[in-house]
Amino acid sequence: MTKLAALLLCALAFLFLDGSLSSAFAHGVADGDKGFIQESSGPLIGPFIYLGAKHMVTGYDHLLFLFGVIFFLYRLKDVSIYVTMFAIGHSATLLLGVLTGTNVSSYLVDAVIGLSVVYKALDNMGAYQRWFGVQPNTKAATLIFGLFHGFGLATKLQDFELDPNGLVANLIAFNVGVEIGQILALTAILIAMGFWRRTASFWRHAYFANVVLMALGFVLTGYQLVGYFAA
After folding, report:
1. Distance (Å, whole) CA 73 – CA 79
2. Is 146 in contact with 87 (CB distance < 8 Å)?
3. Nearest Cα to 209, choosing from 16, 25, 64, 74?
4. Cα–Cα distance, 124 to 170 (Å, whole number)
5. For residue range 4-23, what is the model confidence (pLDDT) as tens digits?
6. What sign does the CA torsion over 215, 217, 220, 222 have?
7. Of 62, 139, 169, 213, whose CB is crowded by the most CB atoms within 10 A?
8. Residue ranges of the chain with pLDDT lower than 70?
């Protein structure tokens, strides 16, 4: 397990140091998708649903956070509640940020997103109960960090020249795609977690797995802060 964690950290660090991939971080958008978004005019429901699903499935920061959220959730009802809270937050700030033109540095927003991964890992490790004697409201935290995750993408979309014709419909379609992508990604994660939970190693390595998750969150945060101060 230790060797695997080290390999994951090394691989992620290598990607961060590769300047050619810098646009892939901080909620980056692929060049082909960027061109399509900027040239789009009028409602394009299908393509934007696809883009939303692609954003979620390839959004490593989203997936790390959601992995932490469902780590100790066993019932489908509980998973659905938390995923819905995240989706509501993500959708609300994405729409609000783009339509109102609210904009801040994407590096700072994404640094907070990295900290959301750290927060959830510490929560899974029982850190807040040990340190402060309280358990934060996990549903509220999921909603709040969902707001930041959506705002992170909104700051990127505002860098494009978006045609107002059909913009609202396309943003709603994009959010529907995000929900679809979230379901697909979480289905794969839950299947893998289901097999792992049936083994004796799950409880032996659950704490360490969240230590690795926390470390990845700190790496994401550090990368974004370096980008902010170097920009």
Report:
1. 6
2. yes
3. 64
4. 36
5. 445 445 545 544 444 434 44
6. negative
7. 62
8. 1-35, 38
What tokens appear for 138 in the block?
């996990």
Q: What is the pLDDT of residue 120?
A: 93
Dump pLDDT digits (tens) for 136-161: 888 888 899 888 878 877 877 777 77
Question: What's the rounded Cα separation, in Å, for the pair 56 and 180?
Answer: 8
Alpha carbons 214 and 220: distance in angstroms, whole number: 10
**What amino acid is encoded at 18 in this protein?**
D
Structure tokens at 81: 């509640």
- As given in the structure block, the two tokens for residue 16 are 């961060």
Residues in the chain: 231
Considering Cα of 122, then 123, then 127, then 128, what sign does the dihedral take?
Answer: positive
Q: How far apart are CA 69 and CA 174, in angstroms?
A: 23
**Cα separation of 73 and 83, whole Å?**
11
Angle between helix 201-230 and 106-124 (nearest 10): 160
